[in-house]
Design brief:
The complex is a heterodimer of chains A (289) and B (275). With 289 residues, chain A is an alpha/beta fold. Chain A is built from eight helices and ten strands. Chain A has a domain at 15-97 and 213-289: Rossmann fold (3-Layer(aba) Sandwich), CATH 3.40.50. Chain B folds into two domains: 12-51; 54-268, MetI-like fold (Orthogonal Bundle), CATH 1.10.3720.10. Chain B contains ten helices and no strands. Chain B has helices spanning 16-41, 54-64, 68-101, 103-116, 125-131, 135-160, 164-172, 177-215, 226-237, 240-268. The longest helix of chain B has 39 residues, at 177-215. Chain B is globular, with a radius of gyration of 23 Å. The N and C termini of chain B lie close together (7 Å). Classes of the chains: A alpha/beta (289), B mainly alpha (275).
Amino acid sequence: MTDLALEPASRGAPQTSSRGAISIRNVVKTYGSGASQVTAVDDCSFEVAAGEICMVVGPSGCGKTSLLNAIAGFHDITSGEILIDGETICGPDRPMAAPGPDRVVVFQNGALFPWKTNLENVAFGPTMQGTMTEAAAKARARSLLAEVGLDDVAERFPGEISSGMRRRVEIARAVINEPRVLLLDEPYRALDALTKQVMHEALLELYYRNKVTIFFITHDLEEAVFLGHKLVISTARPCRPKTIIEVDIPHPRDRSVITSPRFRELMEAAHEAVRQEAVAAFQAGDKEG
Amino acid sequence: MAAGPTGVAVARSPYALRRAVVALAACAVLWQLGARLDDWTGVGAPGVGALPSPVEVAMAAGRVVVEPGYWISSALSFVRVMGGFLIALAAAVPLGLLFATNRTFRAIAFPVFEVIRPIPPLAWVPAAIIFWPTQEAAITFITFLGAFFTITINVLSGALSIDPRFVEAARSLGASRMTVFRRIVLPATAPSIVVASSIAIGLSWEVVVAAEIISGSSAMGSNSGGLGHFIWASYLGGSYDDIIVGMISIGIAGYLCSAAVRKAGALLTPWINAR
């Protein structure tokens, strides 16, 4: 709790990329007990550098979300520990991290509050934490919405705008808190390919302006290679890093990198690593079903 | 759902009013035909044949609506419905939320609640007359029962079906547990409260009449018993046209109340129709 209590003081400082390093060390997460016990994450260790975009790639249902939930503080871990900037948020002494605005989640199908306007949704975090007055939070929210091209729908409810727009509002709702880590759980899964492209560029633009560590779960390889500094390719359930691919295409990136030979090579490498796991997951599913 | 930035609430069909009028008129015509079938063919229509015709009822209504007694009866019933309904709303919303948020309390109190819930409000009438000091209180208690269980159950299920991601998102954005209740659970349950209320006020109208018929006939004069008593007195006095007038009055009153609740609800939950 103390770290959260101290947060507001540092909030006014300009964001630097020296915050938000994630260390995942020997994390195990099991559900249930006895014969029905399922291991979702098994002895998982990897590092995410501060200000890095880390894409966690793996077949659906492999336990990636369990890892994200542990970092966010929604679920506990069975053993191991997770550190942010060298500070243990969950570990042997404390299996469940406290959820907080330094690690904000953008959910798979979106979780904007339908009873609040888009502007109120974005202003929710700072208002709740008391780091800004409501008026200041709304002013900041308005400028963030303008940054993602949504100032004209600020006063509308989330139910009134398209799902692509909702995703942008939700990312603005996260970014306004100046989190150390932005946790994205397949945020663009339900979007069509064209909207997805626009979303990717909008996310990168936002990232270049507000440097923050991004922990991004996906199973879309093109998305992973286009956005990430690094791909952590997970094994099929239980989740454990199988291969880590460093994407050496320099940022800032735009759509043109997709046609570059290096992009194709990296896609091919990622594809090969994922394919083996997808086959394994498929066969395991066959046995269970 | 694919509403763009200009997407507004789906406009009500411009034909809606016309269709409603036509449907009501068609019912009246069928009823008139049914009621007069015996005169024309010698064979009475089943059921409707025994009723006064709509023309007779309309004439009776014209006579009744200028009598102050009718309006006093209506007002009495209205006050009883609103009294019972508002008390039920005030009690059932906190109870439903408590059931939803506190497992221990639910484990203790919910079985008791579930045993009492299936008892029809009308079965309560004799007991209510015995243990409430005045008849007024007894009838209001019955209208309370009519609304109370429905609202509680709907609020409970509404609160239980809140998307857990809303709570997680709020916690992650820095809301305390208390704030989550006020800022998330309450607004997320609001649509259920509105729907439950519009159903419940109709149920209160359903039970008020029977409660008045059973309890109101003894001590009160003919003008003080509410619409239920009005119907019963008309039956005893043999003025069958007035029975129908009383019935239709209740239908209209129930409809207007439900519509008013829905309207108020729409104002309280502006995000619901804004898509």
